[in-house]
Amino acid sequence: MESASAPVPFPMLYAWVEYSYRPCTIPYRFPSDPPQRPTSTELLWIQLFRKSITSFRNQAELDDSVSDAPAKAAKFAERFGQMLDDIQANPESHGGPPDCILLCRLRELCLRELGFRDIYKKIKDEENAKAIVLFQDVVRLADNIMDDCERLEHLVKGIFAGNVFDLGATQLAELYASDGMTFLGSFKKLLPRPWVIDDFDKLKSKWLRKAWRKAVIFVDNAGVDVVLGILPFARELLRRGTQVILAANELPSINDITYPELLDIVTKVKDNTEGKESILGVDAQHLLVVNSGNDLPVIDLSSISPELAFAAADADLVILEGMGRAIETNLYAQFKCDSLKVGMVKHPEVAQFLGGRLYDCVLKFTEGPV
User: Fold this and answer.
1) Helix (H, G, I), strand (E, B) or coil at 288
2) CB of 80 within 8 A of CB of 110?
3) Which domain holds residue 301?
4) Fewer CB near the terminus (10 Å): N or C of the chain?
5) Chain-centroid distance, C-alpha 7
6) CATH at 64
7) 172 and 271: one domain?
């Protein structure tokens, strides 16, 4: 499904007179704050995005699909840095006041205006290929856990371990460039429970009581994140009789998986025996990949593709995965159905806001209105 129409609101967002959906989790400013002066929170996030410029510039320089990439990468760094200077001097410049959505959009605009469409494409392709080779072993490891609750916890930890692969976080981008990252290594290094937000027991209780009819999963990064973290969890839902919709970005942003890339991955992990699609023995005929209409590492659910809105209209479980979609945006979003927000905290500023630790985990499960 490819989007060619104007965006629409996500149909499972809860709407009532006393609740207004706001995608950004962190309150960057309040009505009493002077409009012409940045708040301390805005300054903190401007600095966070400023720190990311070097890693983005370095990656853009390597993009051989763009002529004269090093010079254009330098221009990107100059332009985006100047934008941040402007916003710091006047928060209402460049469409402000700033939040993580606006700052991400301005960074992408700077890249795209200079011809950089997908500066992490080569890395994503390499990591997808590596992860697919490991997929069967990772799934078999989960299948060998006989207890349903233990297997659920293992699969959830797999999502966290995969979500470490995030090149939008400066520290992780530097780690990847120097030493690389491994899925099993990340799994073993996960911070122990209780996590900063830990609703695993609530999720476990509902898991034992109910198999959902239809789940929508907003996926995050390429490589181990989607292949070894999300797909084994999605396969478990399929095994339980749940129809699963995987919603992926329409356009590239950092190392987030895109709709065409995810289609290719799902095709590669599927078996086709006697005309019946399966994933390592689990019926996969009810697994659907949909274009979310999004083009950022964060997401505003008031603006998604009509195709996703149609497919998700009767969902009874919504899963948002990753720091951008589930923590920096939508942590407090309310839905008409059950929802699960799951991701790793990879910015010190987010850890500070939540009262947790860097690389802490968030698992927020909320049952929908009865």
Assistant:
1) strand
2) yes
3) 121-366
4) C
5) 19
6) 1.20.1700.10
7) yes
